[in-house]
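Sequence only, no structure available. Ideas?
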Amino acid sequence: MTAPLGPLTWDQVGERFYETGVDKGVLYLPNNAGVYTAGYAWNGLISVTESPSGAEASPQYADNIKYLNLISAEELGGTIEAFTYPDEFAICDGTAVPEDGVYLGQQGRRQFGLCYRTRLGNDTQGNDLGYKLHLIYAAQAAPSEKAYTTINDSPEALTFSWEFSTTPVPVTGHKPTALITVDSTKVGAPALATLEAALYGDADTGPSLPLPDEIIDMFAA
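Reply:
I predicted one. Tokens follow.
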């Protein structure tokens, strides 16, 4: 990346960028080979909080000086909050359904993938500048609290919240990752359309979550 020539300027027209909102949530379930071949619309999504951890410095000393810093592995976790969730998420939340309408808690928890979209805006186009697609792989939800309260003169809808952790998946030529972000303002429209057809499905195929190498190939082409 080449540094710009000339003096720096700040807050120019059209360069006051921001990111907001969350929508178009999709839950993906992997098959036994770890391929995310089934996707389900996640309605009522309120927020997704990405919470990276790790990447902490571990100083090493030699010759009476600080010799170097070793950095620990970075991990991705987070929190999903929603008014509701797809029925298919039950097996990711430790719930088995032996019969329609009958739910058994405290069961095994299946890994899942997640896609959601955030809006990009600036001072001239508002929220219509573009968007980012956030793709999360190999997530696993932890048991969550559900608070049921009485209906009163200030009613509020019950919200659900899940903390999740992830296991990075392989990426050729890079370290494994559990997160890919695609910026619509910086990628080619044809490749973006190909990715969204895979993520959301089209007339010929159902929704699926491509693995990182597949996504990189889409945009490299």
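The helical segments are 189-200, 212-220.
Hope that gets you unstuck.
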